[in-house]
Prior knowledge:
Elements: E1 7-14, E2 18-27, E3 30-40, E4 44-46, E5 49-51, H1 54-68, E6 73-77, E7 83-86, H2 107-114, H3 117-124, H4 133-140, H5 144-148, E8 151-154, H6 155-164, E9 169-170, H7 171-174, E10 180-181, E11 186-187, H8 189-195, E12 205-206, E13 211-214, H9 217-223, E14 230-232, H10 238-244, E15 254-259, E16 263-269, H11 276-280, E17 284-287, E18 293-299, H12 303-312, H13 318-325, H14 347-357, H15 366-392, E19 398-403, H16 409-419, E20 423-425, H17 430-442, H18 449-459, E21 463-465, H19 471-484
Helix pairs in contact: 2-4, 10-17, 12-15, 13-15, 15-16
Amino acid sequence: MSAAGTKTFAAVDLGASxxxxxxxxxxxxxxxxxxxxxxxxxxxxxxxxLRWDILGLYGGVLDGLRAAGPxxxxxxxxxxxxxxxxxxxxxxxxxPVHYRDRRTEGAPERVWATVPPDDLYRATGIQYAPFxxxxxxxxxxxxxxxxxxxxxxxxxxxITYWLTGERGTELTNASTTQLIxxxxxxxxxxxxxxxxxxxxxxxxxxxPGDPAGMLLxxxxxxxxLSEPVPVTAVGSHDTASAVAAVPAARGERFAYLCTGTWxxxxxxxxxxxxxxxxxxxxxTNELGxxxxxxxxxxxxxxxxxxxxxxxxxxxxxTPLLSEAARIPALRYxxxxxxxxxxxxxxxxxxxxxACRAAGGPVPRSPxxxxxxxxxxxxxxxxxxxREAQRLADREADVxxxxxxxxxxxxxCQLTADACGMPVVAGPAEAAALGNVLVQxxxxxxxxxxxxxxxxxxxxxxxxxxxxxGDPTVxxxxxxxxxxxxxxxx
Length: 489
């Protein structure tokens, strides 16, 4: 199956716009990742709202496993917060609702009427976002699907269930539901009781590295895998897997940026930060590999540019980046965390409207709008990295930028300029690498988290960007956006 001293693992990595199955060959000094199969993730607008095509995704996973061939194990990661509901017999009760669906409008206020925002944050450490699983469940109260449900599985756990027939709830993803106590790593039962949420819907918790079952015979037949294949729980929230793949040196003081549809910016800590100041800054405490805490802020990310390109009907970003690079920095800036950018739709129009409302210059061309997006993201990265250090009382000397944004040299350089510290970009496939390495550790590869990061640093292509330009320009722009940003409820 693999060369002597190495093993091969399949990483199922489901993103908001596409899914892929990657194979990773891992040994003491070997880490080689190959894409076996990539498939689109196209949400569907139905009369009742925005839904995930979960059956199409599952079909893509099966096709990917067939393309991957024999492996020693497989693991699954995806985006967070969304879930599928199952009947008593295990059948799916409708397509999972997309987190960008509008059904949670008004749900946070209903929650806060019972549990004030300060109490909720102290109990869970999770930032306010209208699509958190907690609010989704409150919004679903009284629906036929929730009334009929006997099981609830988060997206990667649902795929695992269909592959193995075994139910579990992986902890890093469960921590995003806003129902986990980040200090204990267990359900916050007192909070769930106050809000009338039945935790019995959730399957038992699993931790990264735990066994998650074996492929069912019917799945083996469908994928052409003749030998039994174990499924291993990984950091099933893709950000948890991506942070595990940050190629930091042992003892290095680093901040991280996981870039893709979202930008997740923050620090890796040993304990959560649940102060009032942290809540006011809208930082979250999600659980990571080996008992770590991902203290971070969610920023809208390259979703802004992806939606613009969809509106423009463009597939190649290269000409846009070339044009954007010729435009002076910070001529056009918006708050990349603003809620008006969350929903799909006319993103260029909303960006133009936000610039006009702020009283500044208004971008007109696609290149100008692209520059606005990248400058605004770099500025948001700066603000999040600086605030994370202040709130956690932890300094950073370097920013590790992983994920798809590592391929965007302009964004990487702007982020270094904005943060005023070096940016080390790569690996771009961080979530898949983190997924593979957690499996490798569970199946005999020795070493701690620092050792696996050293392996990534030795074997993956990394690019270092040094800060340049006038830092006072970024400071002035930061003051403008901070003054305009409202505090969370």
